[in-house]
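step: validate -> pass
step: tokenize input -> pass
step: predict -> running
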Amino acid sequence: MNPSVQIEDIAAPGEVRLRLLVAYDGSGFDGWQSQPHGRAVQDALERALADIVGRRVIVHGSGRTDAGVHALGQVAHADVPAGRMTPDGWRGAINARLVPTARILAATKAPAGFHARFSATGKIYTYRIWNHRILLPTEINRVWHSAIPLDRPILRATARLLEGTHDFAPFSAKRHAGETNTIRTLRHIRVTTSGPLLTLRFEGSGFLYRMVRILTGSMIRVAQGKAHIGWLEELLRAPEAKRSSFCAVAEGLYLTKVLYEKRAPALTAGPHSPQP
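step: predict -> pass
step: emit ->
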């Protein structure tokens, strides 16, 4: 965490901090972060809250997602008038004002000091790939369609290589001045298959801008036989000298879960929560 960032540790007097579990279909949004034209998920949530409260309520998310990226487990917080409704009442009121492609799955009163972004200890992203020459119509905007056959044992080998603590600068896109610290820890990259559907599950302490998409694009290039796994090893050995330019499409990516310390109560949306 940047010590120069001022964080509101608790809600103001007369307000309560809500912790929100948010899901959305990213196809119709220009990402999470508020945009001047108002087509981001944050904008939709703030419009819904303003309609309820009668003034702007700032919604803080755990982090950004790009246009087209989906979420099943985005976490946000907002400070709302105390005593107005129960957390579940706020959930229902917000959902009644949202488009069907965005939903609050769960709402709770946040513990003292909770901040959706700065309290997070890690994230889990899921990337879905449809590896068949024909894409099911129901998977449009839900997966990356790769018609070229993938070598699945090689794909798993690339996952093992990339796990651990590395300088992931070669697998990130620069945003403005770029990141000052590009070392991150990937705790796990799990590869699962079900027929033509391949799923990559990335769990890490933090992620650079477009890191999961560039890692996925690079792994798939090796699994397609277009590059050798040694190319990935070279990128890890010389992070300042080389960079991957292969970025997977946005629509296959899902923010699946945001991780917090166990003392912060976990949010769950019940047994019928969607899974990628």
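step: describe -> The chain has two domains: 15-118, 120-255.
step: cleanup -> pass
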